[in-house]
Amino acid sequence: MARTLPLLAISGLTLLAACQTPPPTGDLTGEAAVRLDPATQQARWRTPGNVPASSGVPSDGIHTIRFAGTVGDAGFQCGAAYGGIGVTGSTILPADFRFYVSEVALIDDSGRAVPMNLVQDGRWQYQNVALLDFEDGSGPCAGGTADTRQTVTGALPPGRYRGLTFVLGVPPQLNVGSPALAASPLNNPDLAWPAPGGFRFLKVDMATTGLPLGPYRAPIAGAFAPAPLPYPPAYGQPVYVQPGYVQPGVVVVAPYGFPVHIGGADCAAYPPGPYSPPGCGFPTRMRVTFPDFDTGSNVVIADLRALLASSNVDVNTPGTPAGCQSTAGDPDCFGLASRLGLTTPGAYAPPQSFFRPGFVQ
Question: What keywords were assigned to this record (predicted)?
């Protein structure tokens, strides 16, 4: 039974969002991390067969939606190796896992999406955008931060709620300009495109069996890179050059494993669209809807194994950026697009399989 909440004041691949269900109606404008079983290091949840139609809220009125980063049934951990990934069964070593969500809302009994008024904490949430961060800055994730974030918090008006909807991505009006001038969490240069602005909505970096991580620094012009430096480089946008040949003092990724960077791209070439940043041609915002989701007992699982299931992460198509950088016609993005529920205009949009609901146990 639903509880009542207390009153509170990718050839041209144009990526389109696809949902598991039609989007709900309505205008969309403290940590509680899932723990790992210490004996098995397996995440303690199960995928629900039938989620109860209720959503609870703490007595202080702040509603919390929990997220969990996973690789299949195993919890995501920096430095852990995961086998059987993608079409080649590659072994991966993740080096980053972060993404933005926005337009978070709960679905009431009438099917209306009621926007969550996010807590403006000055760090993880700004306006209707929140950053989820599963890397902890350790080992291969050294280019990240020690702090993690696995929740979205906000307030809701009184009502009966049974579902959840949100967008993977940053709203068009905020997906512009320089991160140096933006408010946190939009001021993170690691999550920004080099130019002409905007953000990587989803950032996953990893070494794979076929594409190990390899940042290098050249001591002099024309020098060949020595053994890899500690990875990843502190900061600096990747410069894609002939492997082993770099300019002096430039930190280069050649290759940087198989990065998955999803976000609005080709931003100078096309007019804006309904799910596109102003001037961007490849809208990659993706709406996710769970008709049955209880914030008191459920968690949103973001599964890298599912995301990469249709991809060959052991090779990079010649003449294209490393991994998938949301570039038009890049074959390395096609499998990812299908798993994210993105497709070409007028074509069938497969259900996304990156996110799924689960029970916290």
Answer: Signal
| pTM (two decimals) | 0.75
Over residues 276-289, the pLDDT tens digits come to: 445 555 568 899 99
Which residues, at least 6 apart from 9, have a Cβ–Cβ distance to it below 8 Å? none
Q: According to the model, what pLDDT value does residue 254 have? A: 39
Distance of alpha carbon 302 from alpha carbon 309, whole angstroms: 13
Structure confidence by residue, pLDDT tens digits, 86-143: 999 999 999 999 999 999 999 999 999 999 999 999 999 999 999 999 999 988 888 8
* Residue 135, both tokens: 């890397």
Q: What span, in angstroms and rounded, lies between the C-alpha atoms of 171 and 161?
A: 24
Task: Find how far residue 8's CA is from the centre of its chain.
Answer: 30
Dihedral sign of CA atoms 242, 244, 250, 253 in order: positive
Is the preceding omega at residue 185 within 30 degrees of 0, hence cis? yes
CB-based burial of residue 11 (10 Å sphere; 0-12 exposed, 13-18 middle, 19+ buried)?
exposed
SS3 6: coil
Q: CA neighbours within 13 Å on the CB side: how many for 304?
A: 33
266, 283 contact by CB (below 8 A):
no
The answer to whether 68 touches 358, Cβ cutoff 8 Å, is: yes
For the chain, give every domain's residue range: 51-212+257-360
Pick 231 or 320 by higher pLDDT. Answer: 320
What 326-329 contacts at long range (C-beta under 8 Å, 24+ apart), as own/partner pairs, is 326/10, 326/15, 326/261, 326/262, 326/263, 326/264, 326/265, 326/282, 326/284, 327/10, 327/265, 327/266, 328/10, 328/11, 328/12, 328/13, 328/265, 328/266, 328/281, 328/282, 329/10, 329/11, 329/12, 329/13
**Comparing C-alpha atoms, which of 312, 305, 283 is closest to residue 353?**
305
- Which residues, including other chains, have CB under 8 Å from residue 40's CB and lie 6 or more apart? none
- In eight-state DSSP terms, residue 280 is -
